[in-house]
Amino acid sequence: MLKLIFMINRVEGMSYERFVEHHRDRHAPLFTSIPEADRYVRKYTVSHPVPAENYPPRAYDGLTEIWFEDWEDHDA
């Protein structure tokens, strides 16, 4: 199993809330609508860190994880 992880940040001037909405409600469905994603991607998730007391500030705004069976599926 091959897992790719992308830690991403929003563009300057975009609110965190708007970024989360776009990433979760627009980008994720767009990616999963691609026929190759349906065929080769085993799992796809998006996550967004939540500020918590006594923890350092978040280092990124969003996390995307994409699982492939192997490099061959990744390269397809």
UniProtKB/TrEMBL annotation:
Domain EthD: 12-74
Top-rank taxon: Bacteria
InterPro entries with a match to the protein in the record: Dimeric_a/b-barrel, EthD_dom
Protein name as it appears in the record: EthD domain-containing protein
